C-alpha cells in the first residue's frame, strides 16, 4: 500500500501533540521517506527560489520562484527540486479543516506576485520566530497568524485564479466523508443524514457547485483512489476493487474503463 505520513513522521523534531508546523524549506527536517507517498495533513509549500517538478495525483506541476502549492490529505505526491531551493512550509492537521477557507479547496498551486510575496515573507519569518520562542504566548500568536494567512491567501486566490470556488462547507465535509469511507458502499441518503441535510439538498449543492450529482462525485472519488492504488502499489485489481468499495471486481473494471478509457490492467501497465 501507499505509505501515509503524519506530521510527526515528517517533522521528526516536533512534539507529537503539535497540530501544526511553520518553517523554512531549507531548515525543515528532511527524513528518509518512501516516494511517492501521501500525507494525512494539509501542506502549504511556497518556493521562493528554485526549480523542479511536483507531481500531485498524476498532474505534473513546475516548481518555480514564488509558486505556492497546497497539498491536501490523501493526495499522492512526488517531487524533485534543484539544489539551493528556498521557501516556506506550513503543515496543518485536520483540526484546521474548520477554518480552512473553502476558496482554497480546489486550488493546487498559486503564483504569488511581488507585492504579495513582499507582504508574506516578513509575516512568515515572524511566525517562525514565534515557533522558535515557544513561550506561553507563541501558540496563540501562531494559531491566529495561520488564520490570518489562510484568509489572505483566500483573498489573493479569488483575485488571481479562474478556478470555481466551492463556497460550501457542507460539500467540503461531503468530500471528506467520501474519502474516509472510500472502502464502503454508502448511499447518498446516508451521506446526507451524516451531513444533517436532505438528499435533495445535497443534490442541489452538488449540481450548483460541481455540476454533478452526488453519485457522480462519489464514483469519481473512488476512481481517483483506484488510479492511485493501480499506479503506485502492487495490489491486485480485485484487492483495489474491494479497497474502493466495489464488491464485484468485474463491475469495477467496467466502471473504471467507462471513466478513464482504460481497463485497470492497461492503466496499471502505464506506470
TrEMBL record:
<dbReference type="InterPro" id="IPR037923">
    <property type="entry name" value="HTH-like"/>
</dbReference>
<dbReference type="InterPro" id="IPR018062">
    <property type="entry name" value="HTH_AraC-typ_CS"/>
</dbReference>
<dbReference type="Pfam" id="PF12833">
    <property type="entry name" value="HTH_18"/>
</dbReference>
<keyword id="KW-0805">Transcription regulation</keyword>
<keyword id="KW-0238">DNA-binding</keyword>
<dbReference type="InterPro" id="IPR009057">
    <property type="entry name" value="Homeodomain-like_sf"/>
</dbReference>
<protein>
    <submittedName>
        <fullName>Helix-turn-helix domain-containing protein</fullName>
    </submittedName>
</protein>
<dbReference type="InterPro" id="IPR020449">
    <property type="entry name" value="Tscrpt_reg_AraC-type_HTH"/>
</dbReference>
<dbReference type="Pfam" id="PF02311">
    <property type="entry name" value="AraC_binding"/>
</dbReference>
<keyword id="KW-0804">Transcription</keyword>
<feature type="domain" description="HTH araC/xylS-type">
    <location>
        <begin position="172"/>
        <end position="270"/>
    </location>
</feature>
<dbReference type="GO" id="GO:0043565">
    <property type="term" value="F:sequence-specific DNA binding"/>
</dbReference>
<dbReference type="GO" id="GO:0003700">
    <property type="term" value="F:DNA-binding transcription factor activity"/>
</dbReference>
<dbReference type="InterPro" id="IPR003313">
    <property type="entry name" value="AraC-bd"/>
</dbReference>
<dbReference type="InterPro" id="IPR018060">
    <property type="entry name" value="HTH_AraC"/>
</dbReference>
Amino acid at each position: 500500500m501507499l505509505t501515509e505520513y503524519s506530521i510527526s513522521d515528517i517533522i521528526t523534531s516536533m512534539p507529537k501533540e503539535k497540530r501544526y508546523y511553520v518553517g523554512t524549506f531549507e531548515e525543515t527536517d528532511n527524513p528518509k521517506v518512501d516516494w511517492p507517498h501521501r500525507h494525512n495533513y494539509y501542506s502549504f509549500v511556497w518556493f521562493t527560489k528554485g526549480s523542479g517538478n511536483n507531481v500531485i495525483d498524476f498532474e505534473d506541476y513546475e516548481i518555480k520562484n514564488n509558486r505556492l502549492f497546497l497539498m491536501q490529505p490523501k493526495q499522492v505526491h512526488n517531487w524533485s527540486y534543484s539544489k539551493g531551493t528556498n521557501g516556506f512550509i506550513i503543515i496543518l492537521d485536520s483540526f484546521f479543516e474548520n477554518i480552512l477557507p473553502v476558496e482554497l479547496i480546489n486550488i493546487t498551486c498559486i503564483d504569488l506576485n511581488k507585492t504579495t510575496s513582499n507582504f508574506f515573507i516578513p509575516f512568515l519569518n515572524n511566525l517562525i520566530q514565534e515557533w522558535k520562542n515557544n513561550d506561553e504566548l507563541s501558540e496563540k500568536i501562531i494559531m491566529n497568524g495561520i488564520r490570518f494567512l489562510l484568509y489572505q491567501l483566500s483573498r489573493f486566490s479569488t483575485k488571481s485564479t479562474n478556478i470555481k470556488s466551492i463556497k460550501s462547507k457542507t460539500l467540503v465535509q461531503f468530500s471528506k466523508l467520501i474519502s474516509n469511507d472510500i472502502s464502503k458502499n454508502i448511499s447518498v441518503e446516508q451521506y446526507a443524514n451524516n451531513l444533517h441535510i436532505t438528499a435533495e439538498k445535497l443534490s442541489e449543492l452538488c449540481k450548483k457547485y460541481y455540476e454533478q450529482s452526488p453519485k457522480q462525485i462519489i464514483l469519481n472519488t473512488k476512481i481517483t483512489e483506484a488510479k492511485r492504488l493501480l499506479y503506485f502499489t502492487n495490489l491486485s485489481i480485485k484487492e483495489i476493487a474491494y479497497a474502493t468499495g466495489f464488491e464485484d471486481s468485474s463491475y469495477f473494471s467496467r466502471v473504471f474503463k467507462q471513466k478513464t478509457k482504460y481497463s485497470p490492467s492497461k492503466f496499471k501497465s502505464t506506470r
